[in-house]
Write a structure and sequence with these properties.
5 strands; alpha/beta; five-stranded parallel sheet; single chain; 155 residues; Rossmann fold; 8 helices
């Protein structure tokens, strides 16, 4: 199964812990046989979040750089290019129901390239009953699911 992981699951790789979230989730999912994908905008998000923590003196720049490089050059993590036309067109449709365009790009990439999006983002989970969301999923990828990590991990 091809799953796209939201940015949150990669924050521990750059030295930022997330409360109530398994810090080695990507590794665990790979071990369970899932094919992992991210969107190239995730690298930007990690860099931006890392820059904030660096500026506050909470983590060293080298930690962020090392983590981003580990993700970007990991052969078991597939990177989706968000500038692909079908991804952008779908993201533009999602912008009608999601305020954060980065979330639109991540969701669109998942629907167009994967079987599921793993995210804790409540805004994404809250639109599952929206008519626009349902129409997009039905036409693009009828078996697609947006799930939380606990819904996919066996242990």
């Amino acid at each position: 199964m091809k799953i796209l992981l939201d940015t949150t699951y990669f924050l521990p790789a750059i030295g930022i812990s997330v409360r109530n979230l398994m810090k080695d989730a990507p590794v665990k999912l790979i071990q369970e046989g899932y094919k992992i994908f991210i969107v190239n905008i995730t690298i930007f998000e990690l860099s931006a979040k890392g820059a904030k923590y660096i500026a506050e003196g909470k983590i060293p720049a080298e930690r962020v750089i090392r983590g981003i490089r580990a993700i970007a050059y990991n052969e078991t993590i597939n990177i989706i290019e968000m500038q692909e036309s079908t991804i952008l067109l779908t993201a533009f449709k999602f912008r009608k129901i999601l305020d954060d365009f980065i979330d639109c790009l991540i969701l669109s990439s998942a629907i167009n390239q994967c079987d599921a999006l793993i995210t804790e983002d409540t805004h994404i989970h809250n639109i599952k009953e929206n008519k626009i969301y349902q129409e997009i999923v039905l036409t693009k990828n009828p078996k697609f699911e947006a799930l939380r990590l606990k819904e996919i991990l066996k242990n």
